[in-house]
Amino acid sequence: MSATAVRETVETASRPMTTGDIPDVIGLLRAAPQTAYCEWEDDRLLGQHLAQASDICRVMRDGTGRVVAAVIAGSFGVRGTISHAVVAPEHRRSHLARKLVADTLAAFRERGVRRVFLFVHDDNEAAVRLWSASGFSPTAGESTLERDL
């Protein structure tokens, strides 16, 4: 299979994440420090999350079956959140993230979600460009606070 055929397969193969995808997705997140992956987001936790959110968590595989892009998302009534979005380095700048974003937003709409929020590291300019081009904008007057339990 040519590199072009593999790339075409990736670009059209977004699908809901399954528990079988979790090890590959965690591997991708661990290899991408900009995703702010936390080690407590393990197979068990993500499996429990997928039981409620597999439709809005998405993956894309290349022609060899390897996960090359993923989104982990969740919803709370009419609000949604995107926790992680990652694309393998060799597939960046090939519009996989845009496809994942579009598919995830469509799944949110099907759930009745009206607003989606996410967090981006201040120095991750590529992510800011992606999310801005996808219609997201900074939230004025709010600060992000968090605490691990």
Automatic annotation (TrEMBL):
Coiled coil: none annotated. The keyword Acetylation does not apply. Its EC number is 2.3.-.-. Gene3D superfamilies: 3.40.630.30. Keywords: Acyltransferase, Transferase. Residues 12-149 form the N-acetyltransferase domain. It comes from the Bacteria. One of its GO terms (molecular function) is acyltransferase activity. The keyword Transferase applies. This is GNAT family N-acetyltransferase.
